[in-house]
Design goal:
- The structure is a single chain.
- The chain is an alpha/beta fold and 375 residues long.
- The protein has 2 domains: 235 residues, Aspartate Aminotransferase, domain 2; 123 residues, Alpha-Beta Complex (Aspartate Aminotransferase, domain 1), CATH 3.90.1150.
- It has 13 helices and 15 strands.
- Helix 3 packs parallel to helix 9, helix 4 packs across helix 8 and helix 10 runs parallel beside helix 13.
- The longest helix is centred in the C-terminal third of the chain and has 19 residues.
- The mean pLDDT is 97.
- Pyridoxal-5'-phosphate (PLP) binds next to helix 4 and helix 5.
- The site of pyridoxal-5'-phosphate has 15 residues, from helix 4 and helix 5.
């Protein structure tokens, strides 16, 4: 059996090698390496796919979050509510802009922010909420959006892990994650569900003014060449990356199906393992399984990880520390309420190999060792 990997980008590439190589060669032949036609073509294709009115490509997902917050015109000291269980970038850009990340607890089943924590986190300085659609599943957005509307708050979705996920509102309306708040941010880091061959990111919005601001900030605050109306940054999606993404976007739904199928196989193989909790499926959301994440009870997570590693089965801890325990945030972030679930998840979670190329035999091997461990 071939070596089991957390992600297998090379095999995925081999399936579409002809198309990808041709797209890359075309960029080199045209040599429009910055802002070539492939960049705008990709922005339009992604807008059509997600239903967003405007897609603004940029250099990476972290920049997407930063530029979004800049476009909202927040002032130093303004508070932005984030989940305490997330990748650091979500809160890092808030600190970078001298805003205050207000850390809130998450749901123990979905790993996501819920509306319940927002009331307590609210102060007169609150300006925005950043829900993170963690591991490929949407937060329950209807109540979060209602809360934001009632209190005049901006919503910036961190959709770096959930591109392609669809949320169902209580009235049956369906929307892609990243298109429900004022701005949605995503990342094309190679291992994300839609990954390029380096760094990339994008913002999405339905608001023409926010789209204009994001586009301008990402381009040195200029709308007319060498005329700068804002302090911005330099954040571009390379033409080469856009060319790769144009090919891979066509396969995104197929990739999501492969991942969902792999998740179902894990579910069936691991259903009866004592002390192991399988990922929860939210009734309001599809799941694109950026990660397949177990919770291991009884303080045995690290032992399981080591047991698997000794048998050449990789696994990862996303994430070992909640935001409140990160040194960088100690003096700038404000905890709101108990963050015990986030802290507990950091001690319990274990993500298994999950990618578009995973075979049934590989999954059986992963599962067999988990079963052996638990017996
Ligand atoms: C990957 C990721 C980011 C940052 O994206 P980059 O492209 O690596 O900058 C932000 N938030 C979350 C939740 C992520 O998983």
């Amino acid at each position: 059996m071939s070596h089991i990997r957390m992600v297998d980008l090379h095999t995925q590439y081999l399936h579409i090698r002809g198309e990808v190589d041709a797209a890359i060669q075309q960029v080199i032949d045209q040599s429009a390496f910055i802002n070539g036609p492939q960049v705008e073509a990709f922005a339009q294709a992604l807008a059509a796919y997600t239903g967003a009115k405007y897609v603004i490509p940029c250099a990476n997902g972290t920049d997407a979050l930063q530029i979004s917050l800049m476009a909202l015109g927040l002032q130093p000291g303004d508070e932005v509510i984030v989940p305490a269980f997330t990748y650091v970038a979500t809160a890092e850009v808030i600190g970078l802009l001298h805003l205050v990340p207000v850390m809130t607890d998450v749901d123990p089943h979905t790993f996501n922010m819920t509306v319940e924590v927002l009331e307590q986190a609210l102060t007169p300085r609150t300006r925005a909420i950043v829900p993170v659609h963690l591991f490929g599943q949407s937060c329950d957005m209807a109540p979060i959006l209602d809360f934001a509307r009632q209190h005049g708050l901006f919503v910036v979705e961190d959709n770096a892990q959930a591109l392609g996920t669809v949320y169902s509102f209580p009235d049956g309306t369906r929307r892609h994650t990243g298109t429900m708040g004022h701005i949605g941010c995503t990342s094309f880091f190679p291992s994300k569900n839609l990954g390029c061959f380096g760094d990339g990111g994008a913002m999405m919005t339905d608001d023409p003014e926010l789209a204009r601001l994001c586009r301008s900030i990402a381009n040195h605050g200029q709308e007319q060449k060498y005329h700068h109306s804002l302090i911005g940054c330099n954040s571009r999606l390379d033409t080469l990356q856009a060319a790769v993404l144009n090919v891979k976007l066509k396969y995104l739904d197929q990739y999501a199906r492969n991942r969902a199928l792999a998740a179902e196989r894990y579910d069936a193989l691991l259903r009866d393992v004592p002390g192991v909790m399988l990922p929860w499926r939210s009734p309001w959301s599809t799941h694109v399984f950026h990660q397949y994440t177990l919770q291991v009870a009884g303080g045995r997570r690290d032992a399981l990880k080591e047991y698997l590693a000794a048998r050449q089965i990789p696994s990862m801890i996303y994430y070992p520390l909640p935001l409140q325990e990160q040194q960088a945030f100690r003096s700038i972030a404000r905890p709101s309420g108990s963050l015990d679930v986030a802290a507990q998840l950091c001690r319990r979670v274990l993500s298994l190999p999950m990618h578009t190329e995973l075979t049934e035999a590989q999954q059986e091997e992963v599962a067999r060792h988990i079963v052996d461990f638990s017996e």
